[in-house]
Amino acid sequence: MIGKKTRWKLKKGVAPTEFDKRIMQWERRGRLVPTPDLIKTPEQIEGIRKAGVVNTAVLDEVAKIIRPGLPTIEIDNLCMDYCKAHNATPACLNYEGFPKSVCTSINEVVCHGIPKENEFLQEGDIVNVDFTTILDGYYADASRMFIVGKTTPERERLVRVAKECLEIGAEAAKPWRFVGDIANAIGNHAHKNGYTIVRDLCGHGVGLHFHEEPNVEHVGKPGTGMLLVPGMVFTIEPMVNEGTWEVFIDSDDPYGWEVITEDERDSAQWEHTFLMTEHGVEILSK
Questions:
Q1: Kindly report the CA angle at 55 between 164 and 147, in degrees rounded to 5?
Q2: Residue 73 in 3-state DSSP?
Q3: In which band, very low, low, confident or very high, does the pLDDT at 14 lie, cut at 50, 70 and 90?
Q4: C-alpha closest to that of 142 among 55, 268, 45
Q5: Mean pLDDT of the chain
Q6: Which residues contact 250 (CB under 8 A, 6 or more apart)?
Q7: What is the SS3 string spanning 173-191?
Q8: Helix H or strand E encompassing 87
Q9: Measured on CA atoms in the order 67, 70, 72, 73, is the torsion positive or negative?
Q10: Which of 116, 148, 233, 285 has the fewest Cβ atoms within 10 angstroms?
Q11: Is the C-alpha dihedral spanning 214, 207, 49, 190 positive or negative?
């Protein structure tokens, strides 16, 4: 019996639906199930979807300006201006002390890179631009890799395989299966291609808050982790490293945010926000 540890709680006096019963069956087997608040209502899904439209559009605008010599602060300015013009708010700005509206992570910077006036994109760089939008209280989160000008075959391959990891993880995300299925599919593809996956950071639930349950790991065993059910909204965002999976926080970063590969070799990441449906995932932001 789950007893006091029960996560799936019915309202008093309300008979369980078939949906409730199915979740409760998994919980009785000792599996981790979502709490009811993680199942978004149709109204909430529509709000997250609208936030996703703005979020995707921001990254589309970023794609138009990426070029050698671009100061990364200009990416931040563009994101801020686009949000203001569309009555949205950048979730990163001032989040736990993060000083800018967007993350710009170049080459060996895995994530949380801070835009700077004196940091310029160079020919051949690879850069991840990660942006989260708040619109009418709803959140959508996505990131893309951009190749600056012409780069090496090695960097092109890393960026491509990282995107394949995201796509393969999305294919593995099925209703009434588990987060571990996503992790296993991603990890296997990265390792097969000679890369590693960062283990200290992961995807997450999103929609009503910036970060919600579940943690969406990118290395793991199938059939483990939280049960995935229709109505859940979450990100998949594998960080694929050329060398070791280990990372550190840049000591020169006064804000304590920038994450760098331990061996300072390249890293690539793609992220989408997904809605779990009865048939698989739907992309809400990319």
A1: 45
A2: helix
A3: confident
A4: 55
A5: 96
A6: 109, 258, 259, 260
A7: CCCCCEHHHHHHHHHHHHH
A8: none
A9: negative
A10: 116
A11: negative
